[in-house]
Amino acid sequence: MNKKELAESMADAADISQAAAARALDGMIAAVTKALQEGDTVSIIGFGSFLVRDRAARTGRNPKTGEAIEIKASKSPAFKAGKALKDAVN
Which function does this protein serve (predicted)? Predict the structure, then answer.
């Protein structure tokens, strides 16, 4: 399912226009992005949590040459599924 199909599904479920659902989806994505940029965690009970994980600096290898390279520390967005979502999938 892509973003457009998700907005269409939201519109059908909420009985609103597809344009309104697309705006709501864009707003939700923007709100989650802003919260993660500020270092917050976004928790949706029964669905899951969006959070930022720190990745430590490490040594990697250039696959072409086999040369060792240093990979910088970084932050990575992550999603942890909630119990209700896990149960729905299984």
Answer: Histone-like DNA-binding protein which is capable of wrapping DNA to stabilize it, and thus to prevent its denaturation under extreme environmental conditions.
Residue 8 DSSP one-character state = H
Write down the domain spans for the chain. Answer: 1-37, 39-89
The pTM score is: 0.81
- pLDDT tens, per residue, the chain with 90 residues: 999 999 999 999 999 999 999 999 999 999 999 999 999 999 999 999 999 999 999 999 999 999 999 999 999 999 999 999 999 999
Residues 71 and 52: their CA atoms lie apart, in Å, by 18
Task: Round to whole Å and give the CA distance between 84 and 88.
Answer: 6
